[in-house]
Write a structure and sequence with these properties.
heterodimer; A: alpha/beta; Rossmann fold; globular; B: mainly alpha; ABC transporter involved in vitamin B12 uptake, BtuC; two-stranded antiparallel sheet; 14 helices; ABC transporter permease (chain B); transmembrane (chain B)
């Protein structure tokens, strides 16, 4: 099958060129071909007017092409500095590394994006976002002529995103060409000089972003209109489902209290590291709580292990679906039915027919694109994988959904579908806690929003009070 | 926006390439078989085939247990030792203490279970790498045998146990019936039960499985217990076959077991593999030993030939799997 079909575009020095399209449109494939990860079947690549044939990622690096992948490959047991200068060490006579110099440089690089990590920290201890920042610095330290960024802003918070944009401006001034792949259309007019849209591996258009509205872009990307991104917010709230009182887990968060009602979508806004993910993980029993009480339907519950949460009909969609959400090598069917095995079995023997019906229902309901239900889940696109995670919890008929960045890395079409699905769940009286770094998403979906800053709740906003400004100022701790 | 499958039958359709894994290995075995039957007239006789299967039975029982362990990303080096210690102590109960046969058998099984539990608890609760844990328990098992037997063989084996190895039921060796039954149970456990599904999930990604509500530590401990109990059963069968229990029984067999399981397509990275593959892997290795005997390879060359053939088989398997993988990627 052709993933890319006769795509052509050019990129000049000091230009930021946006590459957009839905999941599976071929953006990453194109980037990987240029960076030598994949080989092309036909076509030509010219670099500085010289025809090149990029044989391997190593070759690409020598040619001055750097790529920051969506899932950066860092060595967890090495420090930030060592990772940044990997294969590119500054040294005396090419033998003895200049440790201090590299450390100073990586510190400067980290500060250029406003990151205060110590350069000697082991990458193992870094969060997903922090790792991503290290990967960006690694690419920049290689002093490339062409820098490919594959959805760089997806994993960053608003604050870090701003810093990234500033950094991109700097790089532009140095004459570096940047190929910028993104799902976040709103940032394109700000930083990009030109935009290329791909659809199903085909080249749709290359033009300046001025005069091209977001609506038009979406239309060109998916081939038709999306009338409305966010469905109307459910306003029928039922009785209390979950109450958290005075919950603390040091050093992540302390004295957290809130309440979740039936039909409510409770947003958790905050910067990365504000303790939101740890809070969700604690409620679900992945992290042991230190103090505090959790009430479910007014009964105190003591969750020590996720299986207790699951048997309480709670659901947890993790921010890192490939690491901790899905069993990659298992089939779509098994991934969906895994949390519902007790109901689909008799005397511990799985009732495969019953299971199949359940799985098919979910696949059709959510419109998951699969070849067949036994296809391994690692072969699905990101959006479809996320739907599989959600399908699992829908199949388990969960009452409470903890959604941690449910739309990360998903294209706009799939996002809109997920939003409808989430709102539908609320309408059915389920309780939903939504963690998101995308403020628009919080505003568009949530009945109520809690803002966290450094492990504490700094704001509790009703739907009417939720604005971009109010959330931003609360989550940076300005108020 | 219609992005779903066209209709139910579309997604219901099973993958046609799914069982290629075992099929490829089956072809390798077929090729070897044809080769051997050309080289030796004795190879393709009922007596020899039966012989081959009987010789492979101990390996097969151990490999069943090891499949469970490897599916969860673990490794169990103690199977040989556990097999030997459970057969020696079990038989010792009967011969030295005059205990009834069933007490001896239960003692064996209990020893296997305890070793499995020890391995499992050390791996899951104390997070010690499985390689180290099972290496230590292998040494413990071997040590116990030395102390218990003082280096001497224990015999005689009671007739009722001997029957397991030499008896015939409806003109079919009882031994093979037992192994077949164990294999069927193992297969059904992995494919049809909640526990089996949990084994695959815990091996595929322990964290993801935990968050999906699976008690992964119990599941993984369970695999070591299964491995230990099967090792004890193998010990009883071995005593029945050899008509004694010796301190050096099953020395080094754990590596052959692991080779058989891995050649059978079970991934050392966990989450992938099945019993059919394991049985084929066992068959292939036994086939090679059998052929080495039949073809009068000088004893000094025995190990070398075996090693090379296993290497070639593994290589063929890698090629087969590579093809299988890219075949899948195209569909994507």
């Amino acid at each position: 099958m052709k993933v890319l079909d006769e795509v052509h575009f050019e990129l000049s020095a000091g230009e930021v060129h946006a590459l957009v399209g839905q999941n599976g449109a071929g953006k990453s494939t194109l980037a990987h071909v240029i960076a030598g990860v994949h080989q092309m079947d036909g076509g030509e690549i010219y670099l500085d007017e010289v025809k090149v044939y990029v044989k391997s990622p190593f070759h690409a690096r020598r040619l001055g092409i750097s790529i920051i992948k969506q899932e950066p490959e860092l060595l967890p047991e090495m420090t930030i500095t060592e990772n940044i200068f990997l294969g590119n060490e500054v040294s005396y006579l090419g033998v003895f590394p200049k440790g201090k110099k590299m450390q100073r440089e990586s510190k400067a690089l980290l500060e250029s994006i406003g990151c205060r990590l110590h350069p000697n920290t082991l990458v193992r201890y870094l969060s997903t976002t922090e790792r991503y920042i290290v990967a960006i610095m690694q690419a920049i330290a290689r002093k490339p002529k062409l820098l490919i960024m594959d959805e760089p802003s997806e994993k960053l918070t608003d604050h870090e995103r701003e810093q990234l944009f500033k950094l991109i401006e700097d790089l532009k001034k140095q004459g570096i060409a940047i190929l910028y792949i993104t799902h976040r259309l709103q940032e394109i007019p700000r930083i990009c000089d030109r935009i290329t849209i791909l659809r199903d591996g085909k080249h749709v258009i290359t033009r300046k972003p001025e005069g091209l509205s977001e609506q038009d872009t979406i239309k060109l990307m998916i081939g038709h209109d999306i009338s409305r991104m966010f469905p109307p917010i459910n306003e029928n709230l039922g009785s209390e489902l979950l109450r958290v009182e005075n919950l603390s887990v040091k050093p992540w968060f302390e004295a957290i209290s809130f309440q979740l009602r039936e039909g409510e979508i409770l947003g958790l806004a905050g910067l990365v590291g504000a303790g939101r993910t740890a809070l969700a993980a604690t409620i679900f029993g992945q992290i042991q709580k230190h103090i505090g009480t959790i009430y479910y339907k007014n009964q105190p519950v003591n969750i020590m292990h996720p299986h207790q949460a699951v048997s309480n009909s709670w659901a947890y969609v993790n921010e890192d679906r490939l690491e901790s959400g899905l069993m990659k090598d298992m089939s779509v069917s098994n991934n969906i039915s895994i949390s519902n095995m007790a109901k689909n079995s008799r005397y511990n023997f799985l009732q495969k027919n019953q299971e199949q019906v359940l799985v098919l229902d979910q696949i059709i309901d959510l419109g998951i694109k699969v070849m067949h239900i036994d296809q391994e889940v690692k072969y699905l696109s990101g959006g479809n994988q996320q739907k599989v995670v959600l399908a699992r919890w829908l199949a388990a008929d969960s009452e409470i959904y903890l959604l941690d960045e449910p739309t990360r890395g998903i294209d706009i079409g799939s996002k809109a579908e997920l939003y409808i699905r989430i709102q539908e769940l609320a309408r059915q009286g389920k309780g939903i806690i939504l963690i998101s770094t995308d403020i628009q998403e919080i505003i568009g979906l949530c009945t109520r929003t809690l803002v966290m800053h450094r492990g504490k709740i700094t704001g509790d906003l009703s739907q009417r009070e939720t604005t971009e400004e109010s959330i931003t100022s609360l989550m940076t701790g300005e108020q | 926006m219609n992005i779903g499958p066209r209709n139910n039958s579309d997604i219901y359709q099973k993958s046609k390439t799914r069982n290629i894994g075992s099929l490829g290995l089956f072809l390798v075995i077929l090729v070897f078989s044809v080769l051997f039957s050309i080289l030796s007239p004795v190879f393709l006789t009922v007596t020899n085939i039966m012989n081959l299967l009987i010789q492979s039975s101990i390996l097969a029982v151990l490999a069943l247990g090891t499949t469970f362990v490897i599916l969860t990303k673990g490794i169990d080096l103690s199977v040989g030792g556990v097999m030997a210690v459970s057969s020696a102590v079990g038989l010792g109960m009967i011969v030295n203490e005059g205990a009834p046969v069933y007490v001896g058998v239960l003692t064996s099984l209990l020893i296997g279970l305890l070793f499995g539990l020890l391995n499992g608890v050390m791996v899951t609760r104390f997070a010690i790498p499985p390689l180290i844990v099972s290496l230590a328990s292998m040494a413990i098992a071997r040590g116990i045998i030395q102390i218990y037997t003082n280096g001497a063989n224990i015999s005689p084996v009671p007739d009722s146990i001997k029957y397991l190895a030499s008896g015939q039921l409806f003109d079919f060796p009882v031994l093979l019936l037992i192994v077949g039954m164990l294999a069927v149970i193992a297969h059904l456990t992995l494919c049809r039960t909640v526990y089996g599904r949990a084994v695959y999930a815990s091996g595929g990604s322990e964290l993801a499985a935990r968050l999906a509500g699976i008690r992964t530590k119990r599941v993984i401990t369970g695999t070591y217990v299964i491995s230990g109990v099967l090792a004890a059963i193998a010990g009883i069968l071995l005593a029945a076959r050899l008509e004694s229990a010796g301190p050096n029984a099953g020395m080094g067999i754990e590596l052959t077991v692991i080779a058989a399981v891995v050649i059978g397509g079970t991934s050392l990275f966990g989450g992938q593999g099945n019993i059919v593959g394991t049985l084929l892997g066992v068959l292939l290795i036994s086939l090679i030993s059998n052929a080495v005997n039949l073809l009068d390879v000088p004893p000094a060359w025995d190990q070398l030939v075996k090693g090379i053939v296993i290497m070639v088989a593994a290589l063929l398997d890698v090629y087969r799997r590579k093809y299988y993988k890219t075949g899948y990627a195209i569909i994507k």
